Amino acid sequence: MNLFRSKAEKELDSILSELRAYLENNYKDAAHDQRKKLGERCEALYAEGKLKEKAYLGYKKLYEEYTEKMKDYHH
User: Fold this and answer.
1) Which residue, among 63, 69, 60, has the nearest Cα to 35 in the 3D structure?
2) Cα 16 to Cα 27, 41, 47, 63, distances in angstroms
3) Helix/strand/coil for 51
4) Among 29, 30, 41, 46, who pairs with 51 as Cys (CB 3.0-4.6 Å)?
5) Greatest extent of the chain over all pairs of C-alpha atoms, in Å
6) What is the DSSP string of 11-42?
7) What are the φ/ψ torsions at residue 74 (nearest 5 degrees)?
């Protein structure tokens, strides 16, 4: 983990790590909730100017990758 990450990036990293943990433990509903939260917080932090464009694009790409990976992820 980079010591120079912004507070916004650390928040998104935390959401990502919870998402990954839920996926590893097969908690599908919780994983979907975290994926949604990642997308919403990423957009909100960028809109508020708390997330630089380069970081925003990186997190948005991760969100899209998880969305694609989880599209058939149901009970």
Assistant:
1) 63
2) 14, 11, 19, 9
3) coil
4) 46
5) 39
6) HHHHHHHHHHHHHHTT-HHHHHHHHHHHHHHH
7) -130, 175
Could you count the other beta carbons within 10 Å of the beta carbon of residue 24?
9
Token couple for 40: 């919403």
Digit-coded pLDDT (tens) for 7-60: 999 999 999 999 999 999 999 999 999 999 999 999 999 999 999 999 999 999
- What does the alpha-carbon distance between residue 8 and residue 75 come to, in Å, rounded to a whole number? 32
**Domain residue ranges in the chain:** 11-69
Which residue shows structure tokens 């630089």?
Answer: 52
